[in-house]
Specification:
By secondary structure, this protein is α/β, with parallel strands linked by helices. The chain has twelve helices and nine strands. Strands 3-2-1-4-5 form a five-stranded mixed sheet. It is globular. It is an enzyme of class 2 (transferase).
């Protein structure tokens, strides 16, 4: 028997196949897998490519269950993913999970804990000893996503433009924002943002420049990352209180592109904020397996 996990991301799709003993027996990769940012035809082809790299077509009858991990499942994409898998693997049981649920398994393997995903968006998700789960944040870029690439990028652009106006102290971000948008004046930045078909990704793409400026000693950029760290610590605290955790040491994990792209500066910042928040030193955990592999384990346990 084969159990398949598929991680559908905004830029790439990964598939991992395992046997009943959790041994990895195949892996595959495809293109963009998020229907919120790519046409459904592209998503379907990406999933198909990843699946048939991980498992040969002659072995598809052995696939007992499939678990899809994806962002946007709260917004109604579950049925869409189910239809795609039904076309590719009509005899397999289908499970669709939010990427935050699968990230939690990748970090804690069903043990109590809280994971914070700091990607283009952000969300915290955790589970306690009784199996009760909570999520904190994840409300999207218009009303949330604190501590995410989008949030950091947006704050960086705002501070850069305020400095250009003379409303804030000078910052390296002003030059970097012109460079990022390939603009000679801020007017070009505004045109680029408000004419973009995907402003969330465009704005989130400025986050690496904020990180770069912070590493170069820019105080404005440094305090943006410090504020992001404070937001992350606040999300952990809210989740821990709702889960009834008395001591969170060994129970906090973090993942996501923003974090891993700036781990050397963000990890100590976040851990300092956690000490300030909880009153004792906490070492953040990281995923022990890929999200695709974690999804495969969910597929196995779901049968």
């Amino acid at each position: 028997m084969i159990f398949l996990g598929i991680d559908c991301g905004g830029t790439k799709t990964r598939a991992v196949a395992i046997d009943e003993n959790k041994n990895v027996v195949g892996e595959g990769k495809g293109g963009p897998g998020n229907p919120n940012s790519s046409p459904i035809e592209v998503v379907e082809e990406s999933i198909k490519t990843a699946v048939f790299q991980a498992v040969s077509r002659s072995d598809t009858e052995k696939i007992r269950a499939v678990c899809i991990s994806a962002a946007g499942t709260l917004g109604g994409n579950s049925k869409l993913f189910e239809k795609i898998i039904e076309k590719i693997l009509p005899n397999a049981r289908i499970i669709v999970k939010g990427d935050y649920e699968v990230a939690y398994i990748a970090c804690f393997n069903f043990k109590p804990g809280i994971v914070f995903i700091a990607g283009t968006g952000s969300i915290a998700y955790g589970m306690n000893e009784e199996g009760e789960s909570v999520r904190v944040g994840g409300w999207g870029h218009l009303v949330g996503d604190e501590g995410s690439s989008y949030w950091v990028g947006r704050e960086g652009i705002v501070k850069a433009l305020r400095a250009y106006d003379g409303r804030e102290n000078r910052t390296l971000l002003t030059a970097y924002v012109l460079e990022y948008f390939n603009a000679h004046t801020p007017d070009g930045i505004i045109r680029a943002i408000y004419s973009s078909k995907n402003p969330k990704t465009l704005i989130g793409g400025f986050a690496p420049y904020v990180i770069k400026a912070a590493k170069e000693g820019d105080k404005t950029a440094y305090f943006i990352l410090k504020d992001a760290s404070r937001e992350i610590a606040t999300a952990y605290r809210a989740a821990a209180e709702r889960l009834g955790f008395k001591d969170v040491r060994g129970k906090l994990a973090i993942t996501g592109g923003l974090y891993f792209g700036a781990k050397d500066i963000l990890k100590p910042m976040i851990e300092d904020m956690l000490k300030e928040t909880f009153g004792y030193r906490i070492k953040l955990k990281e995923p022990s397996m890929s999200e695709a592999q974690a999804a495969a384990i969910i597929a196995l346990k779901g049968c």
